[in-house]
Amino acid sequence: MSTREIGKFIERILGKAYSPSTISRMTDIVKEDIEKWHKRPLHKRYSVLYLDGLYVKLRRDTVEKEVIYVVLGVNEEGYREILDFFVGGQESAYGWQEILQHLYQRGVKEVLLGVFDGLPGLEEAFKAVYPKADVQRCVVHKVRNTLNRVRKKDQFEVAEDLKLIYRAPNKEMALQMFQQFESKWSSKYPREVQSWANELDVLLTFMDYPSSIRSVIYTTNAIERTIKEIRKRLKPMNSLSSLEAAEKVVYLTIQDFNEKWAGRKLRGFAEAHEALQQMFEKRYN
């Protein structure tokens, strides 16, 4: 990435234009900052870890798409922060496990819940590092995948019937709604219904948590909005000229988010604080 390209990116974030020599000094400082940031100590307790990734075009002789892994944490006080990111390769459960082990080494010892999509092996990788944590499979991803597999004329009705499950007031009612869904649709869409039956436990984990935070933990939306913004900021660059360039851009974007979130608790966590503290004590003490 040229000094000119980095200058344009910094201008988009900070709203100011800088000279090439200033940009060059800034990017050298950013490189040092990134190394320190990746090693900074983290809180011991996080109520939730959201895991997600995005693909970007990265040049290493040739240009190919490679993943950027991103971890967003909500600490026990309810404040969110992007804890770490890693650029390179293709997304895999092994890659995620390495990142989670690094977080553990930096102090993240106690986690209540991990929220992510259905990448094969990811649940096992997460549990290998945090065996006492719960897993919440992203319901929005699951619904979207299901609707892609049913006939267009049935999509609205199936979507409405699925809402009765994950918007039920409690787990008992959700299970009853699933039984109705199963009876109604299993003859027409046996594989799709069986897929829900197989994953129902991890799709409804959020119902074991305080009602005030359920709307923000049944889906990866909290981190997807961040991913969307990172993608938006990267889009004008077409492809990133090196791994180092990718890290600089992602780091600067992430700092912008973390500063915005520093004084704002995520919705519902203030009301859930006492209940979550009890869950930590019961699970880890």
UniProtKB/TrEMBL annotation:
Keywords assigned by UniProt, alphabetized: DNA recombination, DNA-binding, Transposable element, Transposition
InterPro entries given in the database record: Transposase_mutator (IPR001207)
Pfam families cross-referenced by the UniProt entry: Transposase_mut
Coiled coil feature spans: none
GO terms, biological process: DNA transposition
Molecular-function GO term, any one: DNA binding
Bilayer-spanning residue ranges: none
Superkingdom, natural source: Bacteria
Function, in words: Required for the transposition of the insertion element.
Family statement drawn from the similarity comment of this UniProt entry: Belongs to the transposase mutator family.
Official protein name in the record: Mutator family transposase
